[in-house]
Specification:
Oligomer: single chain
Helix content: 25-40%
Radius of gyration: 17 Å
CATH architecture: Roll
Shape: globular
Number of strands: 7
Number of helices: 8
CATH topology: C8orf32 fold
CATH class: Alpha Beta
Structural class: alpha+beta
Largest sheet: 7 strands, antiparallel
């Protein structure tokens, strides 16, 4: 793993204070949601801090940057869904050989995971039953291998341009299917109370 790039970026000074997983997740939670009004974005951590908004990919990039600054690998995992739903991005980490995740979401579900999962698959599957449409249809279909951002050097941390190259590489990286056709046919729909709770949001458009 490459070292976090040295340099005086005043906006990054806060990273030093974010020295626990809980502090990182709390920091990411407090950033309002980027609703991408008018155009799609994939902002760098520096742009997120300046604009004070982030969606799930941007929040994961920011969390990965903080983890990297504090001596850990900046790793992302993608949760891929059916075409009628939206995927989700996790910033993943390990503690005592167990996996956990920091996330950015506007909903009551798909949130932080404590490092209690024995594998990335176990961690990813902890989100399976939280992934459903208003119809109750469960939509998660695959997850990616951990994607190491350190291979891109440090430019992505401070770029003023959208990080579409990283996004595309990440989306095209190795993913693992979790269901076959028979399993999909036998899925039980989410309960009405689950669907109702899934509509809770933290930030209003």
């Amino acid at each position: 793993m490459r070292r976090f790039p040295s340099g005086e970026i005043k906006e990054f000074k806060v990273f030093k204070k974010l020295n626990t997983l809980a502090k990182i997740q709390d920091f990411v939670n407090k950033i309002p949601i980027n609703f991408e009004v008018g155009k799609r974005t994939c902002w760098s951590p520096l742009t997120v801090l300046n604009n004070k908004e982030a969606h799930c990919m941007e929040g994961a990039l920011l969390a990965a940057a903080v983890l990297w600054h504090n001596g850990e690998s900046p790793l992302l995992v993608n949760l891929r869904t059916t075409d009628d739903d939206y995927g989700h991005v996790l910033s993943v980490f390990k503690r005592r050989s167990k996996w956990g995740a920091i996330t950015k979401t506007n909903h009551a579900v798909l949130r932080y995971r404590d490092p209690v999962y024995a594998s990335v698959r176990e961690l990813a599957m902890s989100y399976f039953n939280e992934y459903f449409l208003d119809s109750g249809k469960k939509t998660m279909r695959s997850y990616s291998a951990p994607f190491d951002l350190s291979k891109y050097g440090g430019d992505w941390l401070v770029s003023k341009k959208n990080l579409w190259k990283i996004f595309d590489d990440f989306m095209e990286s190795k993913h693992f299917k979790i269901l076959d056709k028979k399993m999909i046919r036998e899925l039980r729909s989410a309960d009405p109370i689950e669907i109702k709770s899934g509509k809770l949001t933290e930030w209003k458009r």
